[in-house]
Amino acid sequence: MKPRLVVLSLALALLASGAIAGTRTVTDPQAPRALPESDSVNVRWEDPSRFSELRYSGNRWEASRGDWVQQLATYLRDRAEKRLPEGQRLDVDIIDIRRAGSFEPWRGPNLQNTRIIREVYPPRMTLNMRLTDASGNVIAQGERKLSDPGFMMSDSSSLNTDPLRFEKRMIDRWLADELAAKPEA
After folding, report:
1. Looking at residue 23, what is its pLDDT?
2. What is the spatial distance between Cα 180 and Cα 115, in angstroms, rounded to a whole number?
């Protein structure tokens, strides 16, 4: 009898402390809308409820689960910091995201929460960016529309189970192009 009481007491304590919380969503009003400020790379984003990923999803609830926006922002910042030449600064505002794959509710209740990856659902992102040198002079700026229509053809590893692998590879390609060494004028 005593072990039951201990388990029940622990469960109640966890509930009271908020340790057992509902699934976090990207639309949570308490969720951040920017990464902590950095000297070299800053990433902010709009309200994810306006992103194509949620607006055009076949399962808005499932599409909003998790913290995938923050994960992609962190990935973008970390990868950009490695590529950015000393003294340069990159500011990025994520305007829109459409993840690879989609939900197809017509497939029935057993698959309604499953993201279906097919060629017709490529990853896409829209960014506003500003790249400046150490003196604050603008090197590049403007809107960038990222897309990877051949994302399934370039998936080199079937062992990669990262649910954001297609978006991350798209970010890597954009950074390689955007931050490529430019000839000095």
Report:
1. 63
2. 34
